[in-house]
Structure formats: C-alpha cells, structure tokens
C-alpha cells in the first residue's frame, strides 16, 4: 500500500464504544464488578460507564435484539491501562472472579482477552514497548524482544510476573483509574483492500502493518502500533449485521479540535460517504456498515442527554 498524501492528525485518539445490549442490568453489573468501571449515568434503557472523566462505554437496550455471528463489526474493543501495576489490578480482578479469560504476551503489549456476558469481545492491556518490537511488513509478521531474540508475538502471558506489580495496599475494589482509555478497536471486515481504502485513504490513518496471509491490517494515528485493527477472520465477503443485531452500534474517533473534525468530514463527503450531523459530531458508516462517530473532546465529554449519537441502534 502506497502511503497516503494525507494523514489524520497525530493527536487523534479513540473515544466511547457504544453497544446495543439485551440485558442492561447484567451488562452494567459485569462492567462494574469484573472490569472495575464506574457507572457514570443511567437513563431508562441506556447507561454510560468508564473510569474518571468521559465515558468509555455506552450501552443501550435493544428490545428484541438478537446475537448474530459471522458478520462484519466488532471483534473486540481494547481497554488500555495507564501502567503495568493498574493492568495487574485489572488482571487480578478478573482472576479473583474466576471469569474466563486468555492472558497473552504480545511483546509490545501485555494483555488478556475475555467476552462480556453477551459475547462482546474485550481486550485489557498495557503498552510495554520497552520489551521489544514487532513488524508486519511484506506480508510477514516478525517480533524480537529487547535482546534481539525472536518472539512469536502471541505467547502465554507470565501472569505471576505481572501480579508481582501489586502492592499490599492495592485493593481490587478500587475502580479503574484516571488515564484508563479505549486504546484500540479491532473490526471484522469483508475485504481488507476496501477497508484500507476507507480507513487509510479517506480518513487518513497510517498503515502500521498488513498481511494478507494473516488476513489482518493495523492502522493508527501518530505512529501508535494500532488504533484500528482490521481482519477478515469471519470470511471475505462477510455480510453486515442485520438491523436487529446486538453488539456494536458505533465506535468514536476523537479529533483534537473542530477544525480537524471538519477537515476529515470534508474528505468523507468528497469520497461520497453519507454524513449525518449529530449535534456537531459526525456519524458515518464504513464500507461494511460499521458505525463511526467523528467527534471532538467536547462532544465525548457531554452529559448523557446530549449523547450526539442518541440512543437508536441504527442511523439511517
């Protein structure tokens, strides 16, 4: 893939992930007790949760919704903790609850994977770039640790070593701390080339690595390893989810200011992508019908009644 002449602002980050759910009570209880999120607000069939500050997660009840597999949309959203000690607290919380999870060592990150009670994929992780690097160039994945030794990039995590970060005064009742954020989202797509044309060619995320053999591409802003993962693991040509599907409503791309938001929105319009104004934020859909909210920090910090995407599952 040739580099795009346009790059999204390097301070671009991700914001709230919005999910349509069947059982709001059960979902809120899970995110509070297992992930340590705080309940920021609840209004009828909707709720917002996170750490300190803006919402990380927005849940809305979808009456009659059903779980559908084998479609484009969410593979997982990833919660990034501000330190290895805080990741250790999160990991300990999951293990103490005996909640099924899959601790994995990606070398540049330490992580664990789990699903919420309705099957939405979640990654909990901390960045550990000092431990080594990986690359996905020329269609081949390779990784080496800080001593230059080969690494698979997907080895079993040394959970014992991570938990040694905890101190006697660290309580598992302490909620997720300030600085916890959405680090990335990973999406199922129907076609990698088409996905790259949209996320790289239109929105301007830089390609950090791609492999047709693996069926995966990473894109990001500002040189981060990935803000958005794209894969074809449910099959090339996979259909989008139906309107009554539970799961991802949208994820949020946070531009640093209004000027940058308008700059990206103009590129989207020029590419022929439908744009819907949402109280100053912009709702679009990628080529696979995944909702993408373009917003500024002011938008994502609003009170729930001003949620720019509203509470409807689909935007038409």
SSE layout:
Blueprint: E1 13-21, H1 24-33, E2 38-43, E3 46-50, E4 55-61, E5 73-80, H2 84-96, E6 102-105, E7 109-115, E8 121-127, E9 132-137, E10 140-145, E11 155-156, H3 159-163, E12 181-188, H4 192-202, E13 206-211, E14 216-220, E15 228-231, E16 247-254, H5 258-270, E17 276-278, E18 281-285, E19 291-295, H6 297-300
Parallel strand pairs: 1-4, 5-8, 12-15, 16-19
Antiparallel strand pairs: 1-16, 2-3, 3-4, 5-12, 6-7, 6-11, 7-8, 9-10, 13-14, 14-15, 17-18, 18-19
CATH superfamily: 2,3-Dihydroxybiphenyl 1,2-Dioxygenase, domain 1
Distance between the termini: 32 Å
Give the helix/strand class.
alpha+beta
CATH topology: 2,3-Dihydroxybiphenyl 1,2-Dioxygenase, domain 1
Mean pLDDT: 92
Number of domains: 1
Number of strands: 19
> What is the top-level CATH class?
Alpha Beta
Approximately how much beta-strand content do the residues carry?
35-45%
Major sheet strand order: 11-6-7-8-5-12-15-14-13
Overall form? globular
Report low-confidence residues grouped into runs of 5 or more. Answer: 311-316
Number of helices, where a helix is a run of at least 4 consecutive DSSP H or I residues: 6
Biggest sheet, in brief?
Answer: 9 strands, mixed
The appropriate CATH architecture is Roll
Assembly state: single chain
Q: Roughly how much helix do the residues carry, as a percent range?
A: 10-25%
Radius of gyration: 19 Å
Spell out the helices and strands N to C.
Answer: EHEEEEHEEEEEEHEHEEEEHEEEH
């Amino acid at each position: 893939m040739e580099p795009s002449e346009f790059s999204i602002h390097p301070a671009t980050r991700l914001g709230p992930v919005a999910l349509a759910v069947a059982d709001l009570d059960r979902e809120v209880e899970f995110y509070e007790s297992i992930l340590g999120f705080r309940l920021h607000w609840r209004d009828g069939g909707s709720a917002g949760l996170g750490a300190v500050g803006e919402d990380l997660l927005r849940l809305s009840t979808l009456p009659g919704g059903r779980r559908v597999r084998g479609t484009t949309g969410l593979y997982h959203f990833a919660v990034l903790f501000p330190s290895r000690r805080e990741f250790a607290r999160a990991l300990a919380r999951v293990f103490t609850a005996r909640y099924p999870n899959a601790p994995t060592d990606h070398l540049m990150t330490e992580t664990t994977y789990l699903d919420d009670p309705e099957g939405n994929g979640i990654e909990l992780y901390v960045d550990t770039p000092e431990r080594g690097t990986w690359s996905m160039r020329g269609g081949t994945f390779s990784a080496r640790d800080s001593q230059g030794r080969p690494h698979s990039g997907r080895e079993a995590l040394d959970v014992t070593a991570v938990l040694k970060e905890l101190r006697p005064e660290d309580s598992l009742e302490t909620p997720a701390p300030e600085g916890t954020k959405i680090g990335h989202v990973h999406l199922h797509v129907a076609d990698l080339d088409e996905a790259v044309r949209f996320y790289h060619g239109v929105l301007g995320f830089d390609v950090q690595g791609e492999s047709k053999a693996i069926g995966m591409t990473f894109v990001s802003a500002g040189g981060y390893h990935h803000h958005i993962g794209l894969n074809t693991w449910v099959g090339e040509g996979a259909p989008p989810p139906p309107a009554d599907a539970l799961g991802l409503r949208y994820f949020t791309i946070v531009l640093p200011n209004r000027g940058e938001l308008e700059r990206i929105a103009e590129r989207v319009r020029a590419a022929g992508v439908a744009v819907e104004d949402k109280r100053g934020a912009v709702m679009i859909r990628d080529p696979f019908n995944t909702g993408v909210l373009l917003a500024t920090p002011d938008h994502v910090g609003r009170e729930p009644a001003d949620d720019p995407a509203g509470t409807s599952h689909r935007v038409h």
